[in-house]
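Changelog excerpt

This revision adds worked examples to the README so contributors can see how folded entries look when concatenated. The first example is reproduced verbatim below.
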Amino acid sequence: MSVTEVSKHATVACPFCATLNRVDLGRIADRPKCGQCARPILLDRPIAVTDATLDGVLAGTDVPVVMDCYADWCGPCKIMAPILDDFAHDRQGEVLVTKLDTDRNPATARRFDVRAIPTLLVFRNGREVGRQAGVIPREGLDRLSGVPEKA
């Protein structure tokens, strides 16, 4: 990274112990680990968020956050899952992809008025800037996130 580049960070809840960790997205190749339990934090896939962790993630993340509001029993959510996995893998360091289980986190679903699943919400600087209900193709996810396409 050159001196003129500004480092981007994301706050991510450890999938093992739920500790919030601030991760330098410019150093993803160094394989970040949780500061509490030392297990890996993998940003090449969607990261789970909860009622308890979402505000910390949104407040501490410099890149767009795409949140998939889903439920385990939802057929369209299962269709959307591999599209989000692919997107998270291709866009790691540029976008933080998160997943919110609406059955286990009803307060957040109510807070953002999620009335259908899957619903994708996009946040920048902690504020909602985009929303899409239903399954969308990968190209639609790229557009919704607002991140320029890779060359």
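The second example, added in the same revision:
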Amino acid sequence: MWEKVVSILGGNVFDGVKDIIRTFKLPPEQQLQFDSRMAELQTQAELKLAELETQDRNSARQREATIKDLTPSILAYSITAGFFGVLFYMLNYEVPQAEREVLFVMLGSLGTAWTGIIAYYFGSSAGSAAKHATIERLTK
């Protein structure tokens, strides 16, 4: 049973709770009710998380539009130029062995930042995929 508790702490809470309840062997009719309610709760939680993510993104965009702050745009352009500039340099010039690791770390950091910028301005495909999966599950 402790393995079940440990798996909850490291994984999906809903799956972990289901596993613990199944360990206690509910009667079949109660198991069906339980599974139905857990699926409903999980769907509600996923929808709430998607809603919170959307509100967070919208509030950041509204702030940017209201204040007309150029900082996010300047940072986005700078990071994009830096990412592709380092990538271009590494592909076209011989990088000394001693500096190679530093450029790899810099390229990885810039790539991660650039991915966040693309997700901010154009939306994230992971969030869209999760939203579509949730909507599909709700319509079934």
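Reviewer comment on example two: The mean pLDDT is 78. The longest helix spans residues 28-67.
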